[in-house]
Design goal:
With about 850 residues, this protein is α+β, with helices and mostly antiparallel strands. About 50% of the residues lie in helices and about 15% in strands. Helix 2 runs antiparallel to helix 8. The termini are far apart.
């Protein structure tokens, strides 16, 4: 044993063993410090990345429904019906109810995850919902104030998402996405969607099945919505993270920010990542044991211990063989190698280096080897770092590519050089009806089946030209994509080749989208560019283009009729613009009923129409005009006769210009209008007076009394007979403008609001415009306009003062006020004769002309006017 104890081989063996052991200790410390930090950092990044990926998938899932809700809150019809419905039992009487219900049904049909679409109505007595089911009525006890989704969206005044709950209809787990409906910044209701949560359920189960970490969902109140340990259920529980995590960590998780934290739970160290789902109240929480992150170190150390043991065993065998032949030189070499391990350099005696035996070869070889190893390790470390960086870059680009492809609103299909499908995004699956699993490896033409909309012939797909496809190109117009189930949709697409660094085609990328909505909008725009929106007839733009086209011999003789609607402004002033629109629609329908299909009818102005009648002479045109006159004369609007003036002319030769024919027809029309328009307007005035007095017999008595009193005041002022007639007529017609005032305001028993009073004040101006438009009554219009002006200048509508006010208007002011005071009103009892006289005296010099008041009082005192 003493000889073994002093052997050179043993010393060499011990030296090598110590050297290897020292390297192992250094390596172990390196692993324990550097690699552990690296693994912990990588684990936290991976934990955060998993949370972010889940958030992205949930956001993609929810975003389309949020977008639908955001669009819904700007729907004018949703806002109007929420504002107009005051009683749940009368909601179906609203003209918008059927249309809104249909729109809600269309919204529900957009996606299988939409369980229900509805509009919340917070009514005075009972709350209600308008749903996608036309005949559906909520329980009378339904109370919006107890509904979480309604309270959240109203209180926060924005789009909100509720916690999951069990849907009453489908009995499946769902959430509600809701937004307030506003009219002029006033909330009138709410629009909501019930979204089934099965897809989010699948996302969470899938990630929990593949990840070592536990992935949970929580609400921003701390309520746990999904627990990885309770996989398979997605129910609302009563567990909160406040009962599990430290308060400081709870505050971080619920802060609305993302991050990663370390904490201890039941004696075990854990890492926890939290990431809020954008535009929702949901937070993704991912946690993992620290021991799981560091598990690779322990495996690696165990493997290295095994390797070390094998090295020591082999070394012992080698030492037993070499102990007799290389002891002294090897000891020296080992000593030098030990020196190398300390300072990185080695110096062997020259005599070892010049030896020709094994020791010489070994000595030179060791020096060379150590130098090469040092260089190789340096290069290896550099390459390892480059490979690590490249791997990280590839992983990021792959994740970015995947997220980008599936986030696009267009369908994307990628093929190989043979036209076999490699990639399809979610939109492409939806548009083609093929899932990625079914379409993978199939021919592009099988999945992307397109035909010409007009000829029904199969279109050439981009894959046919893949060998010549060197740049982006798109399909022709009118292309239909036939889905897997046979459904057809209009699409537009663009294709581009996938080229390698040498320009060789390796595949094809096709991007396409649903073109249906865009196509319909283009057709609507094209229609509106040539048609009048109110009547549906052609407009002036179409007429001007058409007259250029008709400058040809094949349409001669060509007649042109110009129609002007008489009294349109009078109808607008008296009965409102809605009745004026109805008048134009009645006239346009009459023209369509009388004219032939080949005749061109256009509305070229507010009250002007023109008809182009090809291949019809002057006499035939006159017959058509007479039929139009007869048709329109039998029409009525508010018991008012409808009247038009028509002029026409005929082009008999190609040399004649249509513009000349138009001027002749226009001149003829204006000649007829001088007679027909005034007759119609006078008839309309009589109709207005009759309608006003028929609705309110008290108004007829008031008008007759004011006319009679006004005439008596004029007689007392010794005015001439012609002016007395004007005074009496003006007094009789002074309230003709009331025809345009809502009866609800006129008959209101309570005190008028400021806005209602402003509406009442408009009757003077309306009466002025009505009479001004008729020559027979135009001389009275200024009297009617000023009959509410006050002596002190505070009246309306122009604020005239004193004698700036016409004498007739001042007389009507006194007579009308006295008659109003001594008559019964819905809001007060009649004044006595003495009370009314005292009121005239009190307001003399402010509201009334003092001279006229004095004259009128003297008449009353003589009992000449009752």
């Amino acid at each position: 044993m003493g000889g073994l104890r002093n052997s050179i081989v043993k010393k060499i063996g011990l030296t090598i063993f110590l050297f290897i052991f020292l390297l192992f200790i250094i390596y172990y410390n390196f692993l324990n410090v550097q690699i552990k930090d690296y693994l912990e950092q990588r684990g936290m990044e991976q934990l955060s990345k998993e949370s972010e990926n889940i958030c992205s998938e949930i956001e993609v899932f929810l975003q389309k429904y949020i977008l639908i809700v955001e669009q819904g809150k700007n729907n004018e019809e949703f806002i109007n019906i929420a504002k107009e419905v005051k009683d749940r039992h009368q909601k179906r009487e609203n003209p918008l109810y059927g249309k809104v219900s249909k729109q809600l049904e269309n919204i529900r049909g957009l996606d299988q995850n939409i369980a229900q679409a509805y509009i919340a109505l917070a009514l005075e007595n009972e709350d209600d919902l308008i749903t996608n089911l036309y005949d559906y009525d909520m329980d009378p006890k339904y109370d919006l104030s107890k509904r979480e989704w309604y309270l959240n969206t109203i209180e926060q005044d924005k789009t909100t998402i509720t916690a999951p709950y069990v849907d009453m209809i489908s009995k499946k787990t769902a959430i509600t996405i809701a937004t307030p409906l506003k009219d002029n910044n006033e909330i009138v209701g709410a629009f909501g969607l019930d979204i089934l949560m099965e897809n989010i359920h699948a996302i969470m189960d899938n990630y929990n099945g593949e990840s070592e970490a536990d992935i949970d969902l929580i609400y921003d109140s701390g309520l746990i919505l999904y627990n990885a340990k309770g996989r398979g259920s997605f129910q609302r529980t009563n567990d909160y993270i406040q009962d599990i995590l430290p308060p400081e960590l709870v505050a971080e998780v619920l802060s609305g920010k993302s991050g990663v934290s370390q904490y201890t739970y039941e004696g075990q160290e854990k890492y926890l990542a939290y990431f809020p789902v954008k535009d929702t109240n949901i937070i993704v929480v991912t946690d993992i044991l620290r021991s799981k992150i560091l598990a690779p170190i322990h495996k690696f150390v165990l493997m290295n211990l095994c390797i070390l043991f094998l090295i020591i065993l082999l070394l012992s065998l080698v030492l037993l063989i070499l102990r007799k032949h290389f002891s002294t030189p090897l000891i020296k070499i080992c000593d030098e190698m030990n020196h190398f391990s300390k300072n990185g350099s080695i110096t062997l005696p020259p005599k070892y280096l010049v030896r020709k035996d094994e020791i010489g070869v070994l000595s030179n070889g060791i020096i060379y080897m150590l130098n090469e190893i040092s260089n190789y390790i340096m290069k290896l470390e550099e390459k390892n770092q480059d490979l690590f960086d490249a791997k990280e870059t590839i992983n990021k680009e792959r994740l970015l590519f995947k997220t980008t492809i599936h986030s696009l609103g267009d369908g994307v299909i990628s093929t190989d050089a043979m036209g076999n499908i490699l990639i399809m995004n979610d939109v492409a699956e939806k548009l083609t009806g093929w899932s990625m699993g079914d379409a993978l490896g199939m021919s592009f033409e099988t999945v992307f089946h397109i035909v010409d909309e007009n000829t029904r012939e199969k279109c050439i797909t981009p894959i046919k030209n893949i060998g010549e496809c060197k740049e982006h190109n798109g399909l022709e117009a009118n292309v239909l994509l036939i889905k897997k189930n046979g459904e057809e949709i209009a699409i537009e697409e663009c294709a581009a080749p996938i080229l390698d660094d040498w320009g060789n085609i390796k595949g094809l990328v096709v991007v396409f989208r649903d073109y249906t909505d865009k196509k319909e909008k283009q057709a609507r725009i094209s229609y509106l560019s040539s048609h009048d929106q109110l009547t549906g007839l052609y407009n002036r733009h179409y007429f001007e283009n058409e007259i250029n086209r008709l400058e040809q011999e094949s349409v001669i003789p060509l007649s042109l009729a110009l129609i002007d609607v008489n009294g349109l402004k009078l109808i607008n002033d008296a009965f409102g613009h809605q009745n004026g629109d109805k008048l134009l629609q009645i006239v346009s329908k009459a023209l369509v009923d009388i004219c032939r299909e080949d005749d061109i009818i256009c509305r070229i102005g507010g009250d002007e129409f023109v008809i182009l009648l090809p291949k019809i002479d002057h006499q035939e045109t006159e017959l058509v005009i007479n039929r139009i006159y007869h048709k329109i004369s039998n029409q009525r609007l508010n018991n008012t006769t409808i009247s038009v003036s028509i002029g026409w002319a005929t082009k008999t030769t190609l040399e004649q210009k249509i513009s000349e024919i138009y001027l002749k027809a226009e001149k003829d029309m204006y000649r007829r209008k001088l007679i027909e328009s005034q007759q119609m307007k006078e008839t309309t005035i009589q109709t207005i007076i009759h309608t006003l007095h028929e609705k309110d017999p008290r108004e007829k008595m008031h008008s007759e009394n004011v006319g009679d009193m006004s005439k008596r005041i004029g007689e007392a002022l010794q005015l001439n007979q012609e002016l007395l007639q004007e005074i009496e007529m003006a007094g009789f017609l002074h309230d003709i403008g009331m025809i345009a005032i809502d009866r609800g305001i006129l008959e209101k028993q309570d005190r008028l609001t400021p806005s209602e009073y402003e509406i009442i004040k408009r009757h003077a101006e309306v009466g002025y415009h009505i009479l001004k438009s008729v020559d027979t009554f135009a001389y009275l219009s200024d009297y009617i306009l000023a009959h509410h002006e006050r002596w002190d200048g505070t009246g309306y509508p122009r604020g005239l003062k004193g004698k700036e006010i016409p004498l007739v208007s001042r007389i009507i002011m006194v007579a009308g006020s006295y008659e109003a005071m001594t008559s019964e009103r819905v809001y007060r009892s009649a004044f006595s004769r003495e009370e009314a006289m005292q009121e005239l005296i009190r307001c003399s010099g402010t509201q009334f002309d003092p001279n006229i008041v004095q004259v009128f009082l003297s008449i009353l005192q003589r009992n000449e006017c009752q």
